[in-house]
């Protein structure tokens, strides 16, 4: 008996249980069954066999492969020589590809078929107010040039610098045409700047009004004041947004009230004012209406409802302040007093008569009283003389007539205080109407 197992027959998989492979048929007589107990090949062994590992080939056949060998790990040669060779190949390919591109570019840039022959090769669409020569001035240096050398981004930016251009699109149409699409700004109001009338769009951009556009009846919107060229564009945009909201609120009803406005003042964002024509024919005049900063439609409806009554009572009405809920402040045109009705005239006349009586009563207090005549009538034995009655006749007959005469003919010359009369009729051309 051997005390030590022979190494020649020792199993390499010591400590592991090897299970014989199952077969569907019993083994034939005389067949070698050693492969049934062989250890399955590992994944690394299978990869090596699939990749054609030369070391495995050498060990299996006992031959040594001689010559240059490349081992690729992740697509990169592992040896220095292989890496150098791969770099040379890649560099050569890049140089060749670049040369081809350069040659193609040079050929295209010098191709006469790609040259913009004239301005007729530039197509412009979408312009209504801007003329074709105005837009072609941007492409003046591009005529007789290769179409591939035209910087489309620069041309787009130059077009959008024109005041009337809101958005521009520039495209190449091979072989030698350029297409330009223009979106023009839409004016929403006239703008008054001193003695000049222009146009303004919803973003506050000021637009020139050409003579052709001035004679065109296409524009029918109010004149806006309070928007000037020296304002920042952000301020103009904010005021035009307020203006647009004002028009939208007025037109929220059944009627388009914005067509009735003659002028809109945006000088004070807290108080939007509008001139509204009143009357027809030669009697037509504008009434300034204060709308405040909200509730525009309700205030206009209240103004329109009361306007016939006001025009009858105040023919020279110039302004109506509708900002207050319970009253309306009416203002007359300069140099025109508020007309006074017959009832008001009677009331004022009565107030003046009462005031005059008070003034005369005050003056009589300064006259000599009857008690001042006591020294002349003190002796009881003597008969009264005519001189004793002279002071009594003077205050009762002569003085009242003299005092009443200035009050009747020259009321301004009397130093008496003025009687209280409502300021809406005399001192100030303004009336307050309760709501």
UniProtKB/TrEMBL annotation:
- Gene Ontology BP annotations: cell septum assembly; FtsZ-dependent cytokinesis
- Domain POTRA span(s) in chain numbering: 117-185
Superkingdom in the source lineage: Bacteria
Give one Pfam hit by family name: POTRA_1
Q: Where is this region: Disordered?
A: 1-58, 361-435
Report TM segments: 80-104
Compositionally biased intervals (Low complexity): 368-413
UniProtKB keywords: Cell cycle, Cell division, Cell inner membrane, Cell membrane, Membrane, Transmembrane, Transmembrane helix
Membership in a protein family: Belongs to the FtsQ/DivIB family. FtsQ subfamily.
Q: Quote the protein name from its UniProt record.
A: Cell division protein FtsQ
Biological classification of the source: Bacteria, Pseudomonadati, Acidobacteriota, Terriglobia, Terriglobales
